[in-house]
Amino acid sequence: MPRQGQSVESCIISRWFKSPGESVKKGDILFSYETDKASFDLEAETDGVLIGRLYEEGAEVPVLQVVAYLGNAGETLPQTGNSTKTAEIADKPVLKEDIIKPVPEEEILSQPVSLSGDTRIKISPRARNRASALGITFENVQGSGPGGRIVEHDVLNAAQSKPLMTKLAQEIASDSKSKIPSSGTGLGGRISSFDILSSEKTNQGDAEDIKISNVRKIIAQKMHESLQNSAQLTHHTSADARGLLQFRSKIKEAQDKGSVDNVTINDMVCFAVIKALKKHPNANCHFLGDTIRKFHKVNLGIAIDTDRGLMVPTLKNADDLNISGLSSQLKALADSCKKGNINPELLASDSASFTVSNLGSYGVELFTPVINLPQVAILGVNNIIYRPSDIGNGVLGIIPFIGLSLTYDHRALDGAPASAFLREIKLEIEKLNYDLCMI
Description:
Number of helices: 12
Mean pLDDT: 81
Oligomer: single chain
Radius of gyration: 29 Å
Low-confidence stretches: 80-118
Largest sheet: 6 strands, mixed
């Protein structure tokens, strides 16, 4: 299992494209796998035959772990597992080759094994060991050996239709007669004791308990840590959005004439934020406890809503781009997130030096964004609201204003410099000019 970023410790196999015994050509996709937020394909590096798979779809596999063996036709899986000694028999899939194996004579002659009390079930030692490794209870397994004795391939057949369980989960399920869930949260998709106990609490009355996804767990953890480990304060202001709307109108006119540029309101705000950060570098920092890391370049984080949850990829060296390049790169990042093939390194919170989160398209007029630690600030962009304002000479007019919400870490920034930075963003937005930006 490849390592996708220093922070990634395990990946989940989402789909196998090759089956055991199937020929493989160099460059063929063996399987797809995903981290908490991104998905990838693993290609074969050589020709051969897929001898066997140690993990099946849905299994969570530690990085750098052996997932399968590729070799020559006729070869079998190594008896000792992989070199790291962690892919034990409990993690091996049930293969068709195992199910159709003939029953060895020594199994048929083996003695029955006592399970509990006076109940005795005829089962061979090999079948018992295999059942224990696979997490299969054998009370309801139908034996095919002499006298109804359970042999190894009976256990393997049962494993095809039953989820894998840890030993503690087996004991709890046996004692409480709890309903066994169809999938688990343990390694390799095993049913754990937590899954058994949790299933007892679900579907009660008019409510339903739904397990959260790995992405949701990570988001919850990061948000809680951010609020728990920093001194966050939010300032709100608004900027005259007439220039933004005129800019956007000219973009649409240019598109009608064949232009490929599609600069959005959010792109314009991000462009203004980058300019403001260059003038107020104290907001373009990481707070590291005893030190503050001040960045000379703007690595802009942008919040993206996807089907899998919130992602915040980073656009490195965003201050090197003009507004057209910025728009193009931000769209490419968003597309990668939605497709699930974003580089995990770009999703790390310490990858960005400042983040922008825009909820204006949802009609949100005011909100308090949460900082992606160790960054010291984040800008929330709100909806454009029309309201009365002085348009000069004491004359009131209805002006569009875009709301801006700056959350900052008071450990790193004081109120006055944070307010000055927010004011600078407002000024940069208000002076954006289509003719100057699109040169």
